Amino acid sequence: MSGSIIHRKRRKLKSEINVVPYIDVMLVLLIIFMVTAPLLTLSVDVKLPSSEARATQERTDPVIVIAYPDGSLGLQLPGDGRPRVIDATQMEGMLAPIREQQGNDFRVMVAAQGDAPYQNVLDAMDVLRRAKVSNVSLMTNAGGDAR
């Protein structure tokens, strides 16, 4: 029997890519994303204010507080040509006598340079709150830069 030769059949090589595992992975990822997507949309509905008011026509010039990009504050009093750069404690000291003199008619407008961070505007408004100024408005300019 040593003379008998056993011939094995050779398999032909497949040149195809088996895509079944890729489809399985894709379907698993799809299910994971479908389950987690509704959980990621935690949001709060915000109703932004809108206004159709026109520019104010005041009898007197308001006091203008300016927030600069470097964090400093400027104060422009009525009749002054250019604003003065002062610190927060000086501003509180200068606004107190004006507030007492004008009473309820005392108005302050807060302006900011276009590249100033909003945090600087909030800091300026905090100084006004400490100075007990209650009538505060934000100053805007159609050109985009308040002052």
TrEMBL record:
InterPro entries: ExbD
Record keywords: Cell membrane, Membrane, Protein transport, Transmembrane, Transmembrane helix, Transport
Matches recorded under Pfam families: ExbD
Gene3D superfamilies reported for this sequence: 3.30.420.270
Top-rank taxon: Bacteria
Major location category of this protein: membrane
Protein transport is among the record's keywords: yes
UniProt KW Membrane keyword: yes
Ranges that cross the membrane: 21-40
Bilayer disposition of the protein: Single-pass membrane protein; Single-pass type II membrane protein
Protein localization: Cell membrane
Family per record: Belongs to the ExbD/TolR family.
PANTHER family: EXBD MEMBRANE COMPONENT OF PMF-DRIVEN MACROMOLECULE IMPORT SYSTEM, TOL-PAL SYSTEM PROTEIN TOLR
Protein name (record): ExbD/TolR family protein
Organism: Luteimonas composti
Classification of source organism: Bacteria, Pseudomonadati, Pseudomonadota, Gammaproteobacteria, Lysobacterales
